[in-house]
């Protein structure tokens, strides 16, 4: 693949995927930086696609795939094939789409299929190594179809737009060749229009929440709770509600 594709570790193909582009991908392509991302490539945990609509897909069953080592090995073997097709002069960009796919990444790490080498930014970007190939990965974000599934609720649309902005800043940073923690974090902060104080507050909020839930100040959530990294625990009213709930 010439240039830099965005590889999405997804859940399952859209209905009639063999003959049409999904609504989710269409929405993504409207705002992805096409000067840097050449295309969107999907690698799905479940490879079956409905011929009618996705209501026939049982996501609860797909969630159980995470506990099957052979399925996870196949999932990441297919990702490795995608990575081998990427121009070796570029750094592949991967988006882990949603909770189940995040859980599959954690299982792949446990199985030795992936190494999480470094946290590039507390905003959710890491460096991972997969079969010897260094990749930059966006973790802990909702699946990009979430805003469509909710009927485009305002909070879901905002989250979707934030995710695309983060992906764009991630690939631009990779294209610059300066993939340091400071540069990646600054690039993401610019994309999200947040300042260092806001980043500090968000980081402290995640640390507060993991301490509250697990007695751990790391700010890193278990795979099944990865979506909680988006809880605005740094905001006083949210923090007060969480403390009241925990009590």
Written account of the structure:
The chain is α/β, with parallel strands linked by helices. The chain has 2 domains: 4-193, no CATH class; 194-247, no CATH class. Helices cover 45% and strands 17% of the residues. Strands 2-1-3-6-5-4 form a 6-stranded mixed beta sheet, sandwiched between helices. α8 (196-214) packs parallel to α9. The longest helix is centred in the last third of the chain and has 23 residues, at 154-176. It is globular, with a radius of gyration of 18 Å. The N and C termini lie far apart (53 Å). The relative contact order is 0.13. The mean pLDDT is 86.
Main features:
247 residues, alpha/beta, 2 domains, 9 helices, 45% helix
Going across the biggest sheet, name each strand in turn. Answer: 2-1-3-6-5-4
What is the molecular shape? globular
Average pLDDT works out at 86
- The chain-level structural class is alpha/beta
- Cα distance spanning the termini: 53 Å
Largest sheet: 6 strands, mixed
Q: How many separate structural domains?
A: 2
Radius of gyration: 18 Å
H and E string: EHEHHEHEEEHHHHH
Q: Can you describe this structure in just a few lines?
A:
The chain contains nine helices and six strands. With 247 residues, the chain is α/β, with parallel strands linked by helices.
Fold blueprint:
Layout: E1 4-10, H1 23-31, E2 37-44, H2 59-64, H3 69-84, E3 93-97, H4 99-110, E4 114-121, E5 125-130, E6 133-141, H5 146-149, H6 154-176, H7 181-192, H8 196-214, H9 236-246
Parallel strand pairs: 1-2, 1-3, 3-6
Antiparallel strand pairs: 4-5, 5-6
Helix pairs in contact: 6-7, 8-9
